[in-house]
């Protein structure tokens, strides 16, 4: 899991805006992100441990990737409606 913050999310969100992948909610904190051009689908997971916001994607990237950038938008909205998100 990678700790996410506004710095490392900025680029990921910018790339997600360009790529416009398809995002599906699998369950709370778990999303599937599909590149509409290549059809590649990855699973993004979010968690919160001791106040740290963490994210994980099963693609090859070792940094905060655009899949995380894409899923975080939906996650923030869903998490806002849930206690201890
Ligand atoms: Zn990824």
Explain what the structure shows:
A hairpin with a 6-residue loop joins strand 3 (30-34) and strand 4 (41-49). The chain has a five-stranded antiparallel sheet with strand order 1-5-4-3-2, covered by helices on one side. The mean pLDDT is 94. It is of the alpha+beta class and 85 residues long. It has helices spanning 6-19, 66-80; strands at 2-3, 22-27, 30-34, 41-49, 52-57. The chain has a single domain (2-84), classed as 2-Layer Sandwich (TATA-Binding Protein), CATH 3.30.310. It is globular, with a radius of gyration of 12 Å. The chain binds zinc ion (ZN). The site of zinc ion has 6 residues, from loops.
What value does the Rg take, in angstroms?
12 Å
| Sequence of strands across the biggest β-sheet | 1-5-4-3-2
Portion in strands: 25-35%
Q: Return the CATH architecture.
A: 2-Layer Sandwich
Number of DSSP strand runs? 5
Overall, the morphology is: globular
* Oligomer designation: single chain
CATH domain class? Alpha Beta
Structural class: alpha+beta
- Sheet bearing the most strands, described? 5 strands, antiparallel
Number of domains: 1
The distinct ligands, each listed once, are: zinc ion
Mean pLDDT: 94
Helix proportion of residues, in percent? 25-40%
Query: Would you tell me which CATH topology applies?
Result: TATA-Binding Protein
Cα distance spanning the termini: 16 Å
Helix and strand succession?
EHEEEEH
List low-pLDDT spans. none
Give me the number of helical elements. 2
């Amino acid at each position: 899991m990678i700790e996410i913050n506004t710095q490392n999310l900025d680029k990921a969100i910018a790339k997600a805006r360009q790529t416009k992948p398809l995002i599906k909610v699998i369950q709370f904190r778990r999303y599937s992100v599909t590149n509409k051009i290549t059809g590649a689908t990855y699973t993004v997971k979010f968690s919160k441990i001791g106040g740290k916001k963490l994210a994980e994607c099963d693609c090859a990237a070792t940094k905060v990737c655009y899949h995380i950038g894409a899923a975080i938008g939906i996650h923030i909205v869903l998490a806002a409606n849930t206690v201890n998100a």
